[in-house]
């Protein structure tokens, strides 16, 4: 189906917004994003998981929704219009839209000098793409904070799965705490955990 037709069908309630995540993956994301106060999503598309994160974040929190949302021939993104509508269905916290790649967004003045406590990476799934997001965001995650990666497992051949296996899960700053189908969830270790593991 063409994007304009999908948009029209969404606008009158005939189509749901689209996502490649499963219901179980979204439940897993919601569990780990619950109560978080500085939430980031890299890769919004039509805002399905963005809304899931907004539904459970802290009421006084902020959600940075990052996507270049590449425009079509007419200079508008109908996916972005759907995302705006979907995310507005939840009223928790505050949403900051950053129209940029994950790497560019980390330099945005709204996030450049602050920590975050939840990052869902679901943008560019090539090796270079996820590598850029990892380099830009992993150091911004506060101790105890969470990163989740879609297409990081059960997706043979994907750069995102290879990078997760070869780099992310071997990084001593983080521990894998959960998986759900194509989703991997890691947590930044605290200073106490790091000291304890150095002593063993
Ligand atoms: C798989 S979709 C995201 C789906 C969304 N998380 C959901 O499940 O509801 C991937 C999105 O990533 C965006 N994207 C592509 N490259 C990106 C990058 N380098 N940084 C951030 N987003 C990117 C695309 O525009 C697309 O909207």
Task: Indicate the topology.
Blueprint: H1 3-11, H2 23-33, E1 38-42, H3 48-56, E2 62-66, H4 78-87, E3 94-98, H5 102-105, E4 116-121, H6 127-137, E5 141-149, H7 159-166, E6 174-180, E7 183-188, H8 191-199
Parallel strand pairs: 1-2, 1-4, 2-3, 4-5
Antiparallel strand pairs: 5-7, 6-7
The CATH architecture: 3-Layer(aba) Sandwich
Number of self-contained structural domains = 1
Strand content: 15-25%
CATH superfamily: Vaccinia Virus protein VP39
CATH class, named Alpha Beta
Rg, alpha carbons: 17 Å
Side-by-side strand order of the widest sheet: 3-2-1-4-5-7-6
Query: Which cofactor or ligand species appear?
Result: S-adenosylmethionine
N-to-C CA distance: 57 Å
Q: What's the β-strand tally?
A: 7
Q: Level of helix content?
A: 25-40%
Task: Please give the count of helices.
Answer: 8
Largest sheet: 7 strands, mixed
| CATH topology description | Rossmann fold
The average pLDDT is 95
Question: How would the global form be characterised?
Answer: globular
**What string, H for helix and E for strand, traces the elements in order?**
HHEHEHEHEHEHEEH
Report on the architecture of this protein.
With 200 residues, the chain is an alpha/beta fold. The chain has 8 helices and 7 strands, in the order H-H-E-H-E-H-E-H-E-H-E-H-E-E-H. The protein has helices at 3-11, 23-33, 48-56, 78-87, 102-105, 127-137, 159-166, 191-199, and strands spanning 38-42, 62-66, 94-98, 116-121, 141-149, 174-180, 183-188. Helix 1 (3-11) runs parallel beside helix 4, helix 2 (23-33) runs parallel beside helix 3 (48-56) and helix 6 (127-137) crosses helix 7. The mean pLDDT is 95. Bound molecules: S-adenosylmethionine. S-adenosylmethionine (SAM) is lined by residues 19-21, 42-45, 48-49, 66-70, 101-102, 122-124, 129.
């Amino acid at each position: 189906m063409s994007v304009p037709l999908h948009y029209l069908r969404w606008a009158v309630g005939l189509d749901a917004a689209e996502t490649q995540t499963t219901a179980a993956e979204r439940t897993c994301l919601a569990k780990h994003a619950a109560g978080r106060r500085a939430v980031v999503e890299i890769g919004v598309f039509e805002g399905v998981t963005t809304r899931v994160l907004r539904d459970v974040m802290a009421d006084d929190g902020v959600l940075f929704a990052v996507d270049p949302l590449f425009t079509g021939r007419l200079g508008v993104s109908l996916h972005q219009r759907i995302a705006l509508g979907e995310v507005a269905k939840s009223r928790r916290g505050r949403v900051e839209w950053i129209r940029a790649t994950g790497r560019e967004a980390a330099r945005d003045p709204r996030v450049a000098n602050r920590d975050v406590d939840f990052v869902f990476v679901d943008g560019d799934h090539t090796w270079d793409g996820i590598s850029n997001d990892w380099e830009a965001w992993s150091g911004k995650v506060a101790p105890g904070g969470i990163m989740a990666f879609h297409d990081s497992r059960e997706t043979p051949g994907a750069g995102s799965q290879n990078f997760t296996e070869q780099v992310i899960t071997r990084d001593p700053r983080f521990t894998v705490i959960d998986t759900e189908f194509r989703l991997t969830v890691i947590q930044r270790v605290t200073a106490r955990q790091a000291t304890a593991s150095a002593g063993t």
